[in-house]
Amino acid sequence: MKTQGFSKQERICRRNDFNSLFSEGKSFFSYPFRCIFLQKASDEFAARIAISVSKKKFKRAVDRNRIKRLMREAYRLEKHTLYDRMQEQTASLDMLIIYTENKLLEYKPIRDGMRVLLKKITVQTTEKTVLQ
């Protein structure tokens, strides 16, 4: 597995995966994102991700696609911290990251927000395993 890549297997695509994520997953907010996550038994990849940008807030597809591109790039560069933690726990994580800001941000605040989000999610997943 390439540490800096972002392959198709790292994305959530199936409807059943989304349904289980919404029905069983936990949620938290980390500016400018909302994250819904579900920890489960280990899969091939330590984490799988889906990214969403509201059509209600951004009418133009060009803007939505740009935000999603920036979010994917920020995740791709910051995911190594999450992967290291999840491999220590021999667990897998499904995440849906939703962009909540009303305006188009530049890359730097998106990357900083993604870094904070991934740190929060590693803390929350380790707390869950400690409690069990």
What does this structure look like?
The protein has one domain: Ribosomal Protein S5, domain 2, CATH 3.30.230.10. The chain is built from 3 helices and 4 strands, in the order αβββαβα. The chain has a 4-stranded mixed beta sheet, with helices on both faces. The longest helix has 29 residues. The mean pLDDT is about 85.
C-alpha Rg (nearest Å) = 14 Å
- Low-confidence blocks of residues: none
Distance between the termini: 30 Å
CATH class membership: Alpha Beta
Gross morphology is globular
Percent of residues in β-strands: 15-25%
Number of helices: 3
Main pleated sheet: 4 strands, mixed
Can you count the beta strands? Answer: 4
Number of domains: 1
What portion of residues is helical? 40-55%
Please give the CATH architecture.
2-Layer Sandwich
What is this structure, in a nutshell?
The protein has three helices and four strands, in the order H-E-E-E-H-E-H. It has helices at residues 15-24, 61-89, 107-131, and strands spanning 26-30, 33-41, 47-53, 91-99.
